[in-house]
Amino acid sequence: xxxxxxxxxxxxxxxxxxxxxxxxxxxxxxxxxxxxxxxxxxxxxxxxxxxxxxxxxxxxxxxxxxxxxxxxxxxxxxxxxxxxxxxxxxxxxxxxxxxxxxxxxxxxxxxxxxxxxxxxxxxxxxxxxxxxxxxxxxxxxxxxxxxxxxxxxxxxxxxxxxxxxxxxxxxxxxxxxxxxxxxxxxxxxxxxxxxxxxxxxxxxxxxxxxxxxxxxxxxxxxxxxxxxxxxxxxxxxxxxxxxxxxxxxxxxxxxxxxxxxxxxxxxxxxxxxxxxxxxxxxxxxxxxxxxxxxxxxxxxxxxxxxxxxxxxxxxx
Length: 316
Prior knowledge:
Blueprint: H1 2-74, E1 82-87, E2 95-96, E3 102-103, H2 105-117, E4 120-125, H3 131-137, E5 142-148, E6 157-172, E7 187-191, H4 195-202, E8 213-217, H5 220-229, E9 234-238, H6 239-249, E10 253-255, E11 261-269, H7 277-290, H8 293-298
Parallel strand pairs: 1-4, 1-5, 7-8, 7-9
Antiparallel strand pairs: 2-3, 5-11, 6-9, 6-10, 6-11
């Protein structure tokens, strides 16, 4: 019995020892787990802080970049100063298209030239008879409408010539007029204040005969109406204008081979205009002839466009 009791006591002591060791191990494990949890928690806190910081930084950058981008998109270029160009309805140089927008040789040349110079163009239809008054008063900046320089060099400040144009006489197909001398005693219509008017009024050229009547009309289209109706025997104008009228109205006139004059077409500024725009325009138009821009524009409206650019021998 004593032996059994001793054995049982030893077993109990051993069990208590084992239990204590297990409890100690468990306590160690719990302590380690707590440390691990704390470490993990601290790491996640740091990671969370990093993530939050990253998100905040990304947000700041996004806003900053967005702000920069919006600034670039909303930044507007300064508006270009406007040049007001006065002209008359004179196809193919200046006329209104089907949408009522000015177009034509002069409109395209002016738009390109002034764009290169840093301006935008506003084309306005003017009373052609008052063109000098309008440009001198400053209501318009310049005149550009198939405007002949001949005989007007002292009246304006000129850019050009940028086109060479023939002033010619046209008659009906069945007319007996074939040369300038045949106009003796005949009735001829011109647009008022144009070069043909001064040619027949002044008759400084010995080839120009004395007419029966010189009829000056305010609008280009009227001179062709007068010719078609037989009210006059002939009309005189720029060759390009006559050809364009025949195309537009499907009619036919005969143009005399002998021209009244070959003249240079230019851009007229007021004589006292000292802004240097005229000189800059003159240089730009010359550059456009040299780089082929003028040729590309003119060939859209006229056949054999190169002949209209032969301005160097005109003597201006």
